[in-house]
Amino acid sequence: MIGLIGKKLGMTQMFDENGVVYPVTVVQAGPCEVIQRKTVEKDGYDAVQLGFEKVYENRVTKPLLGHFKKHNTEPYRFIKEFSLSMYKDIQEDEKFDATMFQEKEIIEVQSISKGKGFQGVMKRHGFHGFKATHGVHESYRGPGSIGQCATPSRVIKGKKLPGHAGYKKVTVKNLEVVKVFPEKNLIMIKGAIPGHRNSIVLLRK
């Protein structure tokens, strides 16, 4: 198996054998069921479609409900697809949970970062602002010059300006699994991962 769907529950701290404290993120990893197994012969590529968090039938759309009934699975709130480069023997109706991860294992986590609304260039892009003396006024947090007058007489595409910050797909690699609690499907990941509490995360080996 190459990945799992999980939910970020929050952050806490743990101590190692030397008494050093470090932050950890608590993630509910699964359980997930294989809804559909995609193959090169039928779909053009190898992948598995996983479902996470069971729901009642009236909580899903009719097209999705037909998809679930076609593959003889219960309705799920979240569906994600993971490509397969190995583990080609995985079949439909198999279930995976936190036991697929081991302590000291290195994984990558993908999620949607926190949305921060409309922000200026200092918070959005890390601009340092302008000085607050020598006649400067009304431009302390501004972006400064954004282009030229005669040539090219326009603002270049991609210029860093104020706008909507956050709420982007972010992948953090090389995170260490500190502790696994298989009876509760919880794993402790060293450090922070993107997203707010109860956000959906994708865990990949």
Supply database-style keywords.
mainly beta; 3 helices; four-stranded antiparallel sheet; 12 strands; 205 residues; six-stranded antiparallel beta barrel
Low-confidence regions: none
Strand order of the largest sheet: 1-2-11-10-7-12
Number of strands: 12
Q: Assign a percent range to the helix content.
A: under 10%
| Separation of the first and last Cα atoms | 8 Å
Mean of residue pLDDT values: 91
How much of the polypeptide forms β-strand, as a percent range?
35-45%
Shape: extended
Helices and strands, in N-to-C order? Answer: EEEHEHEEEEHEEEE
Structural class: mainly beta
Count of DSSP helices? 3
From the alpha carbons, calculate the radius of gyration and give it in angstroms: 23 Å
**Main sheet makeup:** 6 strands, antiparallel, barrel
Summarize the structure.
The chain is mainly beta and about 200 residues long.
Give the SSE layout:
Elements: E1 3-15, E2 21-29, E3 32-38, H1 40-43, E4 47-54, H2 62-70, E5 76-83, E6 95-96, E7 106-112, E8 115-119, H3 121-125, E9 163-166, E10 169-181, E11 186-190, E12 200-204
